[in-house]
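Review this chain:
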Amino acid sequence: MKGSILGFVVLEAGTTLLMKQLLNLAIHPYFVVLVSGLAASALMAVAFWRQPSFKKELLNLKVIKSIWPTAVFITLGNLFGFAALKLTRATNYILLARTSVLLSPILAWLILREKVNHKIWPLVASVLLGIWLLTGDWRLIFNLSGDSLAALTALTISLDFIWQKRAMIKVPLELMAFWRRLLSAILVGGIWLVTPQLGQTSFHFTGLGGMALGFAGMSFFMARALKVQAVAEFNLLINLSPVLVGLSAYFLFGERLSGGQLVGAAFIIGSLVTFNLIKKQESLKLKAKR
């Protein structure tokens, strides 16, 4: 199933770069989320329709109620994330958003009282140092900037992941993927209606179609990968996407990082890779005990 993870990495990087290009064309970020989200939901419905559990539980109100909190968090993630991508570099955005991988277990420890490996704390310090070197500002969370919005995106993605874990006990992954994307598109679309000043409402069919296929494909590949692979393995391999985005943004948009920023990016990626290697080892030890 590493092919599914590789597919997710390529699509995540591709949709990030495509969204940056659409924003460079002054298209409203939340209009893009609305149209591509609705189209992606339709594509997922077609792809998952043959599965009996999908058809049977699609309109189950209990299922939708279980998914609702994660839909709210992914909506906030879209609101912050696409605004961040409009204001900062694609490289900064993907690196800061990816710190959600390290933030999730800390929030799970605080909210769900899950055990946390104490080896995480030096890695948190390393990530914070990397963020400072990348952004050049210790006051990141207090400033309204593209980088601070990307940090808020990481927070909402982490909360979304925690509630996904709770909902997955009752809800199949395919239903989760469909309803999260659809509800998020509708909620973000409501924000689009009251913020016309943020960009043009323009049907860039190639770009919007690409975003829809990207969103649908990411949900499909994630659902397939997580069915047979541990979360730690998935998170370890998707650290390739920031590297892919950074290299592509250099050639496509002329994004360049200074020497200090490159060191900061290395601290962030290195810390995330180390954390996921630790999680992978924990998973292997747990399997061995069983």
